[in-house]
Amino acid sequence: MPEIKFCHRNPVPMEMHKVKIVQKLTLLPAAERLKKMEEAGFNTFLLHNGDIFMDMLTDSGVNAMSDNMQAAMLRADDAYAGSETFYRMRDKLEEIFGIGNLLPAHQGRACEHIIAQHFVKPGNVVIMNYHFTTSKAHVTRLGGRVEELVKDEGLITRSTLPFKGDIDLDKVKACIEKEGAENIAYLRLEAGTNLIGGQPISYENMKAATDLAKQHGIMTLLDASLLQDNLYFIKTREESMKDKSIREITRMIADLFDMIYFSARKFGFGRGGGILVRDEAVFHEMEDYITMFEGFLTYGGMSVKEMEALIVGFDETMDFDVISQGPQFIAHCVKELDAMDIPVVTPGGGLGAHINAREFVSHIKSEEYPAGSLTAALYLCGGIRGMERGTLSEERNPDGSERIASVEMVRLAFPRRVFTLSQTEYVIDRVKWLYDHREMIGGLRFVHEPKTLRFFTGRLEPVSDWPQKLVAEYIKDFGEDQ
Ligand code: F0G
Question: Minimal CA–CA distance to 281: which of 465, 458, 101, 40?
């Protein structure tokens, strides 16, 4: 839906759905939030969801289902082998993507595991526009290497470029020349590039990059986990595509690739995953991994109820009204924050709004985790849970020194169809309050630091009593009950 027009006020993004089932939220008073944050070791991953007002950690597995998705669950055909639900899911994906060879898997990283297992040999290179944490980990685990060849402009946080996820074709050519096509396991393009702010890739760029790969006999792989947002941006930002339907665009994209995989925790509004394989022989070779790691070939670790809901979810993903809402809410949030000179990634992408913590709390040194500190402060001052995407999420160098992240971001995810505009306005208001009090935010240091993926379970403490002072100031402005 193009923006709904207003005649007496500036337009705001509209929810093209109404709420039918609700979950009660609790807004703990700030003093209690401080206690909860201390108990969670200043790590928002360790908070209990019941203590959170706005859970903007991720859009993964927390998107709202529609009435039709829930209704569909009732007709799930429970069978270990040969479930009718599986065939319905396969047919729906074939209708949308034009590929009927479906390998089901329990989530996105399971697909990545299987693809890497089949194609990556030690010393191989995988070309990507940008990595995602799990997509890279599966390649490096097998002795492969990832070359991230997104255009330089993609990493500039404040920009007006419509397609910051585009891959640099000259860099791809140079990489193929340097490494040799036979040493390149595949080209992986991530639609709605997650780690640079959910930034889209254009159809034109996907076509050119996959053409290049094909000329050299390199396998092409699409990560479609965030495709729904990317489809919206192609239709609204790519001039040559504006008159095409979402289904037409999806099919044009799919036709470019040898293989497509997705996390259905994002794509399809449910929980699950799948790989579509164009080549019949390769498809059959890969089946072994499903039975070994995921489950039988007709469920692959997914609940059939969830699969039945996904079939409807895939259809809803082809509905422009449905996929518009997320990007429009994010654009609104980014625009409002930007207008108040709060450092955010622009233009707004899919998935969520991204705050540039390196600028927001420029007085906190990287070794004291600016994005981690800001994430903790946002919970204290509003009950909002975002996700740290910065130095805290990196692993240390072999000599024990910190590996300083190239970008320090706090991601405020917008799970699809979950939050209303008033909740979005609340978040904007609290971020602004925090920005006005940013000098009060201090750093963090580890008290328990796991060796791998430390951001998930590590425990930290503030370097001073800044949280107490910040909360006292917050209470002065908002009262004891919020
Ligand atoms: N690809 C992309 C682009 C993703 O964003 C994710 C997950 C995956 C693959 C892996 O899928 O979680 O189902 O195993 N992103 C989540 C996030 C975790 O919070 O951004 P998964």
Answer: 101
